[in-house]
Amino acid sequence: DLSGHVLVFPQETNDSYVLVKATPEQPLQNFSVCLRSYTDLTRPYSLFSYATKAQDSDIALIKPRPGEYQVYVGGKSVSFPVPEETPMESQHVCATWESSTGIVGFWVNGKARPRKGTQKGYTVSNEAVIVLGQMQDSRTGSFDASQSFTGEMCDVYMWDSGLSSRDVTSAMYNSPLKTPIFGWRNFPYETEGEVYLKP
């Protein structure tokens, strides 16, 4: 149980990341990802990268610039403008997607943004490599330091279903209502390079 702990990514590198050692049992028709990050980066960086054999951005959560997040599904992205962070504050985000409509939902600090859509009818493979803090340009590889995350990350969850606003709020407080594929209270991971777990 990693509650009360954060993963610290202390510097820009192309070889430091967290490998999540869990994947969905079945291909995904729906998914949700939540995490909290704390950084002063203003350049683009990758928070969550889910790469499959066919598609290196089958699921990804990217911050291309301050005030914007991008959610990738099957290699296609939708952008969500968000309020500029107050310096010295962490930001909790959740993204959901459903194949039947292609609708992508996005929440920042528990507040829903207007929904968007992409990849209606798509299926996300479950044969994936999941990495935090780097963008995979191939499965667990081809990392670019200029896309790496530096800062702190915690409260990482993934589900094979959608979330309601109530589910998002419960995830923010590390007490999810739905059982995740993996989550911060039972987080199967390995660190590579310089990433540290700290209280």
UniProtKB/TrEMBL annotation:
Alphabetical list of Gene3D superfamilies matching this protein: 2.60.120.200
The record's section on SMART domains has:
PTX
Q: Taking the first listed entry, what is the main subcellular location of this protein, grouped into a coarse class?
A: secreted
* The keyword S-adenosyl-L-methionine belongs to this UniProt entry's keyword annotation: no
| SUPFAM superfamilies (alphabetical) | Concanavalin A-like lectins/glucanases
Which free-text remark accompanies the cofactor?
A: Binds 2 calcium ions per subunit.
PROSITE patterns hit by this protein: PTX_1 (PS00289), PTX_2 (PS51828)
Entry annotated with the keyword Metal-binding: yes
Record's superkingdom?
Answer: Eukaryota
One GO term under biological process is: innate immune response
The alphabetical list of record keywords is:
Acute phase, Calcium, Disulfide bond, Metal-binding, Secreted, Signal
Gene Ontology cellular component terms for the protein in this record: extracellular space
Q: Where is it located?
A: Secreted
Coiled coil regions in record: none
Occurrences of domain Pentraxin (PTX) (ranges): 3-199
Q: Which cofactors, by name?
A: Ca(2+)
**Annotated family:** Belongs to the pentraxin family.
Q: How does it assemble?
A: Homopentamer. Pentaxin (or pentraxin) have a discoid arrangement of 5 non-covalently bound subunits.
Protein name listed in UniProt: Pentraxin family member
Please give the organism. Nothoprocta pentlandii
Organism ancestry:
Eukaryota, Metazoa, Chordata, Craniata, Vertebrata
